[in-house]
Amino acid sequence: MGQPVRDYLLTLCVTAAVTYLLTGPVRKFAIAVGAMPAIRARDVHREPTPRLGGIAMFGGLCAGLIVADHLHNLKSVFELSNEPRALLSGAALIWLIGVLDDKFELDALIKLGAQMIAAAVMVIQGLTILWLPIPGVGTVALTQWQGTLLTVALVVVTINAVNFVDGLDGLAAGMVCIASAAFFLYAYRLWFGNMIEAAAPATLFTAILMGMCLGFLPHNMHPARIFMGDSGSMLIGLVLAAAAISVTGQVDPDTMRIFEGSERGATHAMLPVFIPLLLPLTIIAIPAADLILAIVRRTWNGQSPFAADRGHLHHRLLEIGHSHSRAVLIMYFWSALIAFGAVGYSVHSASMWIVFVIVAASAVGLVLLLMPRFTPRTPHWANRFVPPRYRHRAKEQASSPSYDGKPAIVGSGAQQGPADAQMGEEGPERAPVAVGVSGVNGATAIGARSRFPERRSIDSSR
Length: 462
Fold this sequence. Notes:
single chain, mainly alpha
């Protein structure tokens, strides 16, 4: 089993490397073609930022599939199944629509239609839900139309859930990366733990999806140099949906050797272990909850369900006092808790300690939500190892003679200009930051970020 793990790791690393290396040129291309829209009232960022990050992510997807096709242990996925080709076809279509939307701002109904067509393309090539194990009933075989409708619905819901949650720097890519990591563990256990060959495509899809997100995250963390845009959010949403469809609708529950007694009893007994549709839903629980709340909120206010606003979960975290980075980390925490909690429960459903761990972690998460302005302070000896906002500044301020490296002027006869007066009022921590300085809100994976001379304020009440 060690060799397949190495092959998956190689595929993941190649996907991440290609995505990472392509993002820099894609950013320059996005700026050149003008894919950098003006700031809207609902946006959190304060400077125009280029989009089209999905171009690099699609390049990583193609690279991952090509590498996997040439690896000995993963070649069988392409030989025995048409699902990788179905994924690539649907991904190419939804990616193209996303690129056009990032540049020309397509209508929401056009994007919805494109999502349905992309799902239909995958269904035609065999990536569809064939049956459902239902507790108390057993395994229910779906007709062609039922499977098609359910597949299209799952694809559309997952794509829009990921798209809705893409509102803070690094949020969507990080949450999907966490979800795909949990999904990878689940699918890998089905394939190599239970020897179910039908779970192989889902295992490959989630490994590639992790690489796409990990390669893009260094460029997208706060402050982001580039946004993935709809070309990226719809793409990773479709890949996540394809993995869910593959592992839930293609894997026959009868192949799992955990059944005892009748079919109805067997389906009920294997529910905590297999979790046919619950696991994909728990993985996108946070984005799906945000999607449902947004639709209800907008419909209640007499708006279109597709009208953008500032009422998403991440916006509410900012409103109650959390910083940008802390809001993203809190969303990461809840996504990991739900996704890995579901995977852990599917493996050890009879162990009560899994429930206790989930309850304890939920309590920690609630405490973090209720303490938005709490800033922990580290010991003095650890100041050099933590971000500046967590350091003790008492000694640093007392020993700092000036804010810009020049000697301080002492005495009543010194003439102070406006800059000196401002320095005296605000203290040494208000030092101006030079434009393009690497390491201060501009140090990212590929160098310093140029700053605009003026920062326009955003009125969130509009």
